[in-house]
What we know:
Keywords: Apoplast, Copper, Glycoprotein, Lignin degradation, Metal-binding, Oxidoreductase, Repeat, Secreted, Signal. By secondary structure, the protein is mainly β.
Amino acid sequence: GVIRHYKFDIRLQNVTRLCHTKRIITVNGKFPGPPIVAREGDRVVVKVVNHVTNNVSFHWHGIRQLQSGWADGPAYITQCPIQTGQSYVYNFTIVGQRGTLFWHAHISWLRATLYGPLIILPKLGETYPFAKPYKEIPILFGEWWNADTEAVISQALQTGAGPNVSDAYTINGLPGPTYNCSTTDTFKLKVKPNKTYLLRLINAALNDDLFLSVANHSLTVVEADAVYVNPFNTNILLISPGQTTNVLLKTKSHTPNATFLISAGPYFTGQGTFDNSTTSGILEYTTQPMSKPLSILKPTLPAINDTNFVANFSQKFRSLANDKFPAKVPQTVQKSFFFTVGLGSNPCPKNQTCQGPNGTKFSATVNNISFALPSRALLQSYFYGKSNGVYATDFPSFPLVQFNYTGTPPNNTHVSNGTKVVVLPFNTSVQVVMQDTSILGAESHPLHLHGYNFFVVGQGSGNFDPAEDPAKFNLVDPVERNTAGVPSGGWLAIRFFADNPGVWFMHCHFDVHLSWGLRMAWIVLDGELPNQKLPPPPSDLPKC
Ligand code: C2O
């Protein structure tokens, strides 16, 4: 492999959307941020220089970070933030991965504007397991706020209420024609007839799963989270925040007399306020004679709460599981976990009025623990043996409070707060069943694990049944990914080998749930061999 050098200058930049000009934090003045392109086996070196007053930190979402946990990036987990005027060099090698991922800021809600594609091409001379596409196009879905997102989340945390929703969904930063003042702010995909395009779809939105569809064109899914999948055709996709999906779009054999909307809108299962607007881009055939007016065809998206579609769609993903790309699914389990994930509440502090449920503050938990970010980074504390006052290792393997998770909610919705981790010996085979709770209403949760891909061996609606459900697990060709949805009012079972030493964050990729505490961390101990140990940190690692 070769070394790919990048420099990220974090600067303010005026950007206008929806007739509203806003000073946003950017990488190199660009919104969305610049793509990182490398090949499997390459080393990526990104020097981040912080010129703004906010602290920053960057995550290379989906990169395994084998023995390079210091470059993973979540603030207060693997590093202290990069402060104003400081810099940090992220340095990692891409091992055994190729496909579409993305990078984003990993502190507070800064990823609202700090995100971009991370594209890993196959090694030189290696081909895709499908015919070479004519062109490859990254398509990032995001959200635009007229307000300052840091104010949105800090106000929500203060009052305990749900945060305001965004003002628009975007495609490559552009809201598209259904929004005010946005006809020119529309993503255009210009294509030729009878060609195959590889669309690298990335959901970088903060708080919404998105349905998406291209009018009158079928899509072939070939990859998820930078792992090839057994190809399947679909007219509609669901893509959750943190997920990436590669699809092939075959254009029509002859120039049609129309343009086609590429549309995305939310899948929403929770309570309270939501946004059911739609962002659109335009698929346009360049061979079209521009003289006659073209009709504009629109796709149909599922209803905003179509949980059946989502359940069926997620079942379609299967690993290739062939000789070249085997599915190394743990067939036996050494450590088994059952995690409840969902919302709860914290009591309102005295002398304050809270706008959350019944005058409390919203909170979100794993096993009823709302994870509090430490004041010093976990990885340093672990590496130097200074966990005292930073974290405890008694994160429960099973929920301490039992109830009928998807049935009648308990009377007491209060959570406990703390910084607790699970310690795993090197190479443990792990199973985690994640159960959505309906304590404050059922909701879907796109769970993301840092430092690993996992296999989705099972999923279902209602309560997980430990007597019946494991017998139905798919241990042959389950999909391998880094982010998967715990279904609203249902459960998800994943397996992985803990073969990467370090401290690894796991959390809901809805930023609002992340901020409320739906997060925890794993510490994976070193193995015996030199290549099974976490090396010491780089000398420029930021200090808290
Ligand atoms: Cu893409 Cu911890 O996140």
